[in-house]
Specification:
- The protein is an alpha/beta fold and 541 residues long.
- It folds into 3 domains: 1-25 and 449-541, no CATH class; 36-102 and 127-216 and 232-246 and 381-438, FAD/NAD(P)-binding domain (3-Layer(bba) Sandwich), CATH 3.50.50.60; 250-377, FAD/NAD(P)-binding domain, CATH 3.50.50.
- The protein is 28% helix and 20% strand.
- It has 15 helices and 25 strands.
- α3 (46-57) packs parallel to α9 (414-430).
- The chain is globular, with a radius of gyration of 24 Å.
- The chain binds flavin-adenine dinucleotide and 2-acetamido-2-deoxy-beta-D-glucopyranose (NAG) (6 copies).
- One 2-acetamido-2-deoxy-beta-D-glucopyranose binds at residues 499-500, 503-504.
- The site of one 2-acetamido-2-deoxy-beta-D-glucopyranose (NAG) has 4 residues, from α13.
Length: 541
Amino acid sequence: MIWLKVSQVLLASSCLVSSQVHSQTAFEAPTFHHPIRRVAVVGAGPAGLQAAAKLVEHNFTVRLFERAPHPGGNWLYSEETPVRESYPDRPVSQGAEIPAELPAMRFYSDGDDGLTLEDRWAEHWHPRPLWYTLHTNSPKVSTELPDVPYARDTPWVLDAHTIQRHVRSFASHHCLNSNDYCPATLGAPPVTAYSTRVERVEKDEETQSWVLTLRRLQRLRESQRIQAEWWTETFDAVVLATGLYTTPHVPDIDGIVDWSKAKKGGQYSVYHSQRYRHAEGYVGKTVLIVGASVSASEIARDLSPFAHRIIASVRPPTDASGERQRSFARFPNTTEFVPEIASFAPLDEHNKGIHHGKIHLINDSVLEGVDEIILATGFLDTPLYPPNSTERRHLHWTGHYIHDPTLAYTMGRPWTMGRYQSYGFAKVWQGKAQLPLPEETKIEDGRRNGTFWRDMWLGEAICRRYVNWLNDASLKDGGHFVEPPSIETLELLKYYTVVHLLNNTVQLDGLGAFGLSMLADKLRTEISDPWTGLVDEGLDW
Ligand SMILES: Cc1cc2nc3c(=O)[nH]c(=O)nc-3n(C[C@H](O)[C@H](O)[C@H](O)COP(=O)(O)OP(=O)(O)OC[C@H]3O[C@@H](n4cnc5c(N)ncnc54)[C@H](O)[C@@H]3O)c2cc1C
Ligand SMILES: *[C@@H]1O[C@H](CO)[C@@H](O)[C@H](O)[C@H]1NC(C)=O
Ligand SMILES: *[C@@H]1O[C@H](CO)[C@@H](O)[C@H](O)[C@H]1NC(C)=O
Ligand SMILES: *[C@@H]1O[C@H](CO)[C@@H](O)[C@H](O)[C@H]1NC(C)=O
Ligand SMILES: *[C@@H]1O[C@H](CO)[C@@H](O)[C@H](O)[C@H]1NC(C)=O
Ligand SMILES: *[C@@H]1O[C@H](CO)[C@@H](O)[C@H](O)[C@H]1NC(C)=O
Ligand SMILES: *[C@@H]1O[C@H](CO)[C@@H](O)[C@H](O)[C@H]1NC(C)=O
C-alpha cells in the first residue's frame, strides 16, 4: 500500500536502529496484582498456537482451548458445514446455555431438542470456512510459521491442505497437536484441550484472576450419543486468539431464505462460499457469485474453466482500500458484472432448482437462468469479549488490553507478526518488558479503517516497533533478539506480487468500467511495494 512505500535499504536499516523510534514512544512497567503464572490461550489457529508455544517456552503454565477437534483454525478443512439456518450462530456471550451448577455433564441423543447429533456437533465447533480448492493469495514466504519451514519444492502459491499440514506440523513440533501429551512434570495436566469451547471469560474481582467457563463435547460412538461437560478454570492472564472470521455473513436480501431451500437432484442451489466444493460439479452451469471479496474472485477463477457463465453481483466500493481492488483484478476476464441484488422473486416450487427464478437487481433489470448461487459475502467478527469490553478497543499495539494488560488479543497477520506478538506477551507477563503508554499508541477500533490502524498497525511501521521494543527489553533484562523480515523475503514478495499475483487477470485498464480507474492507478503503484504482500488481511473473505 502506498503509505507504506519505503526503499528496501531504508527499511532494513530502520528496522534495526532502535533509538529513533524509542525516543518517540514512552513506556511504563505494568503493575500486576500478583505474578502471572497460569495463562489461558483461546484458539488453536496460527495465532493461538504461536502464543501457546512461546508461553510454554517461557515456563508459564499454559492451557490452550480450541472448540474444533484439531488444530489449524481457519485451515482445518472439514466437509462438515455449520448449521446456520436451523441453529443460528449465537454470540457465545449471549445465550449459549450454561447449567446453573458447575461442573455439569449431560448426554444427548439424536433428535433431542430437535437437533441431530451432527448439527449439535457442528454447532459446537463451527466447521471452518474453506473451499476445497482454495489457494492462498499470499505466497509461502509470507505464510509460514517459525520452526517448521516448507520444503524447498513447495509451490509459492499454497493450497489449503498444504497450509493445514504446515500448521499441524507447527502444533506437533511444540507438542500442541490433538494427540500430543508432553507434561512438564509427571501427572501435570495437558496443555491442550480440543473440542473445548470457551463460553465465558470473566474477571473475578476478589482474586483478580480470570475465570473461563468451558464446554467440551465428546461423541460417544458406541451409544450413539454426545456427552457435554461444563466446568471452569482460573488463570492469571488470557490470550484471545479467536481470529476475525467467526461467523459466516448471509446478507439480508428479500427472498433469500426462500431461495436457500431450493434443491435440484438433492443438491441445494444457494451456498455460502464455505459449502462450495469441487469445481467439476459446475460444468455447463450459470453461476452467480455474490460479493467482490477475495473468496468471490478466487472461486470465480476456480470455476471459470468449467462453468458456462460466471456472473458476479458486486456493490461499488465504498472505501479506497487496496485489497478490494486486488480482488476485482483477480476475477477471470469472462466474468459478467451486475449490480447488487434487490430481491429474489418467490419460487413456484423448491425441487427444481432456481433456473427459472427471477432475480431483481437494484437497477431494475431482472436476471434469469442462474443455476447456482454462491454467497461470498464474508464473515462477521463475533469474538469472545469479557464483560464491558464489547469491541477490540482500547488495546496497546502489543495486543494488551489497556485497562487490564492481563488480557491480550492476537492481531494482525499471525504468519508475520505472531512471532513478535507472542514473545511480547511472554516478556510483559514475565515482567521483562514494559508497555507503551496508552496515549501513545492506542488502537481505538480494531477494524482496519482507522488512520492509526493504517499507518501504525500494518507492515513496516509495526515491525519496526516490535523489533525495537523487544530487543531493547532483551538488552535490559535478557532474552534473545529478534530480526525483521529479511531483504531476501521482501525481494521474493516483490517478485511474487508483480509477476504472479497480477498474471493472467483482467487488464487493469478494464477496471475503469467500474469507476475504478483511480484505483487501477493505485494498484499499479502498489505492486512495487513488497509490504503489500506482508500485510493483507481484510474482513471481506
Ligand atoms: C476463506 C479464507 C481464506 C484465507 N486465505 C488467506 C491467505 O491466503 N493468506 C493469509 O495469510 N490469510 C488468509 N486468510 C486469513 C486467515 O484468517 C489467517 O490465515 C489465519 O488463519 C488467522 O489465524 P488466527 O489464528 O488468527 O485465526 P483462525 O485461524 O481463525 O483460528 C481461530 C481459532 O479460534 C477458535 N475459536 C474461536 N472461538 C473460540 C471459542 N470461543 N472457544 C474455543 N476456540 C475458539 C476457532 O475454532 C479457530 O480454530 C483467509 C481466511 C479465510 C476465511
Ligand atoms: C524455563 O525454565 C528452565 C528450567 O528451569 C530454564 O532453564 C529456562 O531458562 C527457563 N526459560 C525462560 C525463558 O525463562
Ligand atoms: C481472457 O483471458 C484468456 C486467458 O488468459 C485469453 O486467452 C483471452 O484472450 C482473454 N480475453 C479477453 C477478452 O481479454
Ligand atoms: C443493469 O445492469 C446490467 C449489468 O451491468 C446491465 O446489463 C443492464 O442494462 C442494467 N439495466 C438498466 C435498466 O440499466
Ligand atoms: C462493568 O461496567 C459497570 C458499569 O460501568 C460496572 O459497574 C462494572 O463493575 C463493570 N464490570 C467489570 C467486570 O468491569
Ligand atoms: C470505521 O469503522 C467504524 C465501524 O465499522 C465506522 O463507524 C467508522 O465510520 C469507520 N470510519 C471510517 C473513517 O471509515
Ligand atoms: C502466468 O500465466 C501464464 C498463462 O496462464 C502461465 O503459463 C505462467 O506460468 C504464469 N506465470 C507465473 C509466474 O505464474
